[in-house]
Amino acid sequence: MGNAVREALSVAVQMGQPVLLWGGPGEGKSAVVEQVAAQLGRPCEVVIGSVREASDFAGLPMRVGDSVSFVPPRWASRCIDRPDTVVFLDELTTAQPSVQAAMLRVVLEREVGDLSLPDTVSIVAAANPPETSAGGDDLSAPLANRFCHLDWEADLGQWVSGMLRGWEPSALPVVPSARATHELRWRALVAAFIKARPSLLRLVPTDAVSQGHAWPSPRTWDRVHRVAAAADAASAGKAVRAILVEGLVGPGAAIEFLRYAEEVDLPDPEAVLADPSTLRLDPRVDLLLASLAAVTTAVAMECTQQRWEAAWEVLAVVCDQGRADIAALAATELLELRDADWPAPRSVATFLPILREAALL
Prior knowledge:
Blueprint: H1 2-15, E1 19-22, H2 29-39, E2 44-48, H3 55-58, E3 60-64, E4 67-71, H4 74-81, E5 86-90, H5 97-109, E6 111-112, E7 115-116, E8 122-127, H6 141-144, E9 148-151, H7 156-165, H8 180-196, H9 208-211, H10 218-233, H11 238-249, H12 251-263, H13 269-274, H14 285-301, H15 305-320, H16 324-337, H17 352-357
Parallel strand pairs: 1-8, 1-9, 2-5, 5-8
Antiparallel strand pairs: 3-4, 6-7
């Protein structure tokens, strides 16, 4: 399990998903973060939250003429020279509340003082459970909901092997930049799942301990489709993908969603655009919506008049089968993609009354 968490951490780092690594004292959280960064060829800036002030993240105020600027610390300035840096925020839960609030801006907006960190900078934090750390506190819900939470525990077999043979790390999966096809599929799956289980779109825990870990929100569901696509593109395996999804929305929602994704077999949107008659008109509304969402997203990623008109032909097939209400939902996205010079496709007349009734035309 330890190696799967390492691989999940490396996938998240490569795609820029902030990670919070939970584990007891002495488990080697700092070592694994620095090791993963080194394997990926990235520098690692270690910033220990428990011994820092809020100004180490918000910047030190300095008067410049008639105004005040906030000077960033050196660790942040070095990220400009190395935009692939891994910023490692250690001992996060033992930081003072004011420091946690300043850290929130770094995680959310990637800003330190008046300095904006490059988008390619990755953020990893580590924390001991509050019950095992002196002065530890529960993580605030807004900060926790921006992380992918991973549980780290040294693997017994790997630890024994490392003691006897040396600590040679195993290879890490490489996330390619070209993963649009995977993102397309997982975006449609997430949308279909939430359509079927709307109560899981947002599920804020009622107790402070759970609020400080992973739970479902519109933000984390959006990140789910990205991490799942990155894991698949890197051929990281189902275990790594499951760890990443659970780290964003929590175990309960993750189990339901991943089981749903296993059962759903979405058609290739490019094949449907080439031949609309191949679209399977599933009686389940959520699955049909997922198929149409995949088609419209594919068109949005490469929007030409020919592909746009082909998508309308797909909707016409759905209308011919008495599902014009379902097609109308996808039509809203196609209408937004239309170039002003493109004429209205003939197939739009099939469900024109529904569009007008819904005030979409």
